[in-house]
Amino acid sequence: MCGIVGYVGPRPAQEVLVHGLRRLEYRGYDSAGLAVAHNGSVAISKAEGKLDRLLARLEEAPLPGRAGIGHTRWATHGAPSDRNAHPHSDNTGDFVVVHNGIVENFRALRSELEGAGVGFRSETDTEVLAHLLALEYEGDLKEAVRRAVRRASGAYALVAMTSREPGRIVAARMISPLVVGLGEGETFLASDMPAVLDYTREFLIIEDGEIAEVTRDGARIETLEGRPVERRSFTAEWDNESVQKAGFAHFMLKEIHEQPEVIARTLGGRIHGGKALADLSWAEGDPADVQKIWITACGTAYHAGLVGRTMFERLAAVPTEVAYAHELRYSNPLIGDRSLTLAVSQSGETADTLAAAKLARRRGSRLLALTNVVGSSLAREADEVLYTWAGPEISVASTKAYLAMLVGECLLALRLGRSRGVTGPDQERKLVEELHSLSDKAARVLADQDPFRLLAGELAGASSVYYIGRGLDYASAMEGALKLKEISYIHAEAMPAGELKHGTLALVDEGTPVVAVATQQNLYGKLLLSLQEVKARGAMVIAVAYEGDEEIDLVADRVLRVPRTADLLSPILAAVPLQLLAYHTARLLGRDIDQPRNLAKSVTVE
Ligand code: M6R
User: Fold this and answer.
1) CA distance linking residue 478 with residue 259, whole number of Å
2) Which of 106, 261, 398, 448 has an alpha carbon within 20 to 30 A of 389's alpha carbon?
């Protein structure tokens, strides 16, 4: 996803901007560029591909100057190319912009501008913003930005400079995130804090519909309407050390290994006297009388929602629906004021999840956010927030955030179940004890990587892998399949085991890999029947099963063991071998594991 960095201060801007863009590489991108103001003009350098290509150009023709903006682009309008890379400028070259997100009415704006004789050099929606600025400029960049933003609809962040006002950068946030980093005699701008964490830990958040005027002395924020905003700065807890690989080959592997600690962190301080979230204060009183829970999310967070549904239904007896956010937001859902909407998102910036959450709120629902990022857009939108405390997740493939979401959902379900008189103290105490044991159990799964390496050799040549399970094991199967496909590029499909006979069994042949998750005791016998069916067609069965389960050896060719736990919590452990299987397969295939092709860490466009 696109990344933005800006700088005004005493240092060479090129250096700061390149460093910041390096820090944002994990988000995924396909081109990069810089614009730096110097001697009355703004010079641009940009290149398709990874940052090294841009660096090669900068080596030949450096950009001197102490104020500038930089960008990594993830293509939406127009293919990845030098000319579509940001920054973009107007025809005089005086106005330069970088932009994240999408200008929804850019076609109409572009034809209007072309009609007025403006020539375009790229296929991007961004370029209209540069031309609009030039047209709207009457001696004050901030006013020009304000007028341009009023004309451009959509969810985006815009950062602009002009050679006519050196030392000044103006940024506007229309949903897509932007922060200001404050230093001594220098000021930074970024779409994400890690971009500038090596320079400062003091931040101001620019909120939706606000404009910030940035100079080396700091930032002045006001609303689009021109009302000054007093914003208190805060100190970020994360430093860049915690976002390094710590000796692991990939961020994904590091994050998988952090999971035992993450489980403990998510639980930390949230259980008192055997009671989950006893001191969570709800903004409007306990929602014990809630009639329905809606869970909305995308990708891995959606899979967490599938597990959450069973937790809420079993522990709190609240009917729960899980909906992909991109579907929910356009489905005219019957969300009412006696409902609770749980929006689940690692980043808290996923555009669809945010939109679905806002819709739920408009319909009168209480909004609870389960997210990993403090101060994220989702967190700020919600009535209540439960942070997962998984720490920065850099790998595009989500791992530790998923486990933390499951733990968070279980805490919430226990809390609701207690308020509603559904889960008794004994049941709660037992589950809480079991939750506490999961850190050690997850660590046991991580202790020996050899089985995963060996199995990777068997999966790497497959063209399709099928993942099956029943009940909660089906949710785990979905997450396992997503992990494999997104980082290894092997086609992987998950289905409830009972669905095989209704079509997919036709594809199972000699050697077809079938990964079965077999932890749900009430459905275990049924799952074995499905495994016998695929076995009879020659499938190579890999099972994820509990330690001590001997029956599984009769049908599975390979078994990946997880320690026994309560069936309701088994997705927390089952995820770990599935992540490792995907990781080692992708590694054997030499894939770009932390930044898989075509994907981005944070999907801030629809
Ligand atoms: O930040 P979010 O949790 O809202 O992100 C949702 C999905 O984009 C994300 O889980 C995605 O599916 C991951 N790449 C999966 O590993």
Assistant:
1) 19
2) 448
Cα angle for residues 421, 426, 430 (degrees, 5° grid): 120
CATH code linked to domain 250-446: 3.40.50.10490
Residue 131's φ and ψ, nearest 5 degrees, are: -70, -40
368: number of Cβ within 10 Å = 23
Taking the centre of ligand 1 as the mean of its atom positions, its distance from the CA of residue 328, in whole angstroms, is 17
Token output for 437? 């044991």
Q: Which amino acid is at 108?
A: A
Give the DSSP letter of residue 511: T
Would you list the domain boundaries of the chain?
A: 3-242, 250-446, 450-588
- What letter does residue 249 receive in the DSSP assignment? S
For the entire predicted model, the pTM comes to: 0.78
pLDDT in tens, 121-132: 999 999 999 999
**Domains 3-242 and 250-446 agree in fold:** no
Looking at the annotation, which residues are catalytic? 2, 601
HSE at residue 210, side-chain half, CA atoms within 13 A, is 21
What are the residues whose beta carbons fall under 8 Å from the beta carbon of 281, sequence distance 6 or more? none
As for ligand 1, residues whose beta carbon falls within 6 Å of it are 298-301, 345-347, 350, 353, 396-398, 482, 486, 599, 602-603
The CATH number of the structural domain formed by 3-242 is 3.60.20.10
Classify 131 as helix, strand or coil: helix
Per residue in 31-62, pLDDT (tens digit) is: 999 999 999 999 999 999 989 999 999 999 99
